[in-house]
Amino acid sequence: MAFSKSLVFSMIFTVFAVVKPSEAALDAHYYDRSCPVAEKIILETVKNATLYDPKVPARLLRMFFHDCFIRGCDASILLDSTKSTQAEKDGPPNISVRSFYVIEDAKRKLEKACPRTVSCADVIAIAARDVVTLSGGPYWNVLKGRKDGTISRASETINLPAPTFNVSQLIQSFAARGLSVKDMVTLSGGHTIGFSHCSSFEARLQNFSKFHDVDPSMNFAFAQSLKKKCPRSNNRGTNAGTFLDTTTTVFDNDYYKQILSRKGVFGSDQALLGDYRTKWIVETFARDQKAFFREFATSMVKLGNFGVKETGQVRVNSRFVN
After folding, report:
1. Burial of 196 from C-beta contacts in 10 A (0-12 / 13-18 / 19+)
2. Paired sense of beta strands 195-197 and 241-243, if any
3. Contact yes or no for 140/26 (Cβ under 8 A)
């Protein structure tokens, strides 16, 4: 899912990467003996990075989604491009994925404490849980034991769900990863701590269609406020954009409340209100934050189990294959 907030292909793609739901049996206690300090090291690293930069939580949660949606949760998003191959992190939807340094820092510390033991894929999964909890969201036991992938191709980022997708396209994209309609709406709630650059939603603000200048599903006053943040000018800053709900750094159910008010930033967000298959879930989560938290934890475990590998390597350096 495009937790995002990036330049994403707006074309409709119906071909998705074929990855088995899981090839490995993960275990919440996988490192209890081999590296009992693993989760403490990751939490402390993430917490310190967040104190320094409040954008870290949204960036790491988005990183987890973008990693899992391509080849499964295998940390292929961390690999650097080579002379012969452009890696996932350099694909158009991932250009604005940031804070790789946090994962790299945690991995360096883990290599000192427990050499060649904790995979980069597990570091991302644990960090994603930690940023949600640190932001006021739910806690869940992360299943561990993933191995790191050795293949990373920018061309495959075309399969990430775009902010222009309608509900049918979103359902198809998530189903290809073994995720249900409820999982899709639930995981979209990760946008509660998200930020988007103008490029991902400005098509909704002007010349939307032959009959409408502004997307009619968007609250008009809200559209006008977004226009001010995204002026059609060469002087617009490269970081121009908006937060995806009103509570910015707090993980809560405000994202769904904004959708009910027709203030969803992405077309794909607002579309959830206009389809009978998803509307009732949005309404449920908007009035019941505890229900959203329960489902989010469950769906994150489910996503984290997608495409993981039992055989493979534990990278020593997160950016390079061993």
Report:
1. buried
2. antiparallel
3. no
**pTM of the shown model:** 0.90
Counted residue by residue, the chain has a size of 322
Cα 115 from Cα 308, distance rounded (Å) = 21
Q: φ, ψ for residue 295 (rounded to 5)?
A: -70, -35
Q: Which of 66, 191, 197, 212 is catalytic?
A: 66
Amino acid identity of 225? S
Other C-beta atoms lying within 10 Å of the C-beta of residue 300? 26
Q: CA angle 315-319-322, nearest 5°?
A: 35
Structure tokens at 239: 């970081």
**Measuring CA to CA, how many Å separate 241 from each of 125, 202, 266?**
27, 9, 12
d(CA 157, CA 214): 29
Distance separating alpha carbons of residues 264 and 257, to the nearest angstrom: 9
Residues 6+ apart with CB under 8 A from 60: 46, 99, 102, 103, 124, 127, 128, 131
Residue for token digits 């490269």?
A: 238
pLDDT band at 40 (very low <50, low <70, confident <90, very high): very high
Count CB neighbours of 125 within 10 A. Answer: 28
Closest listed residue to residue 144, CA positions, set 164, 114, 166: 114
- Would you place residue 61 in the very low, low, confident or very high pLDDT band (cuts 50, 70, 90)? very high
Q: Is a pLDDT exceeding 50 seen at residue 262?
A: yes
Terminal Cα-to-Cα distance of the chain (whole angstroms): 29
Tell me if residue 212 is catalytic.
no
